[in-house]
Amino acid sequence: MELEAVKKYLEKGGDKSVSTIDGLPLRFFERLTMEGLRVDLIEPGRLICSFKVPTRLVVAVIFTVGAPATGVSVEINVSYLDAAYVDEEIEVEARALRVGKAVGVVSVELRKKKTGKIIAQGRHTKYLPVASKL
């Protein structure tokens, strides 16, 4: 997928008229969490976004259901180090640490854009589905 297409998709996450990317349906939680997201930098293996914390994210509980054929999460961890407040500008940096044939590892860091103070750090290791040779 081209980086420009990814950028458009991320920035239109709250747009109700956007319904698919590569034929996949837009999920509820994407609209809820991605509205107002701005892509500051996108390059292979690295993404930096920013957004203002909206009230809906402070009071919402998000339930997600993985689509079939998206793989299996092997490890997910998050360390919460500080709080974010309504209308505070937040920067999100995601890095692909490894993308192999069967496993992908991503780290994410959320920072206060004004001070650079880390709010949370996370890591996600995922088993990637391998296409059957049958």
TrEMBL record:
GO molecular function, one term: fatty acyl-CoA hydrolase activity
Record domain Thioesterase: where: 62-117
Superkingdom, taxonomy of origin: Eukaryota
CDD domains assigned: PaaI_thioesterase
Entry's family note: Belongs to the thioesterase PaaI family.
Protein's UniProt name: Thioesterase domain-containing protein
Organism of derivation: Carpinus fangiana
Lineage: Eukaryota, Viridiplantae, Streptophyta, Embryophyta, Tracheophyta
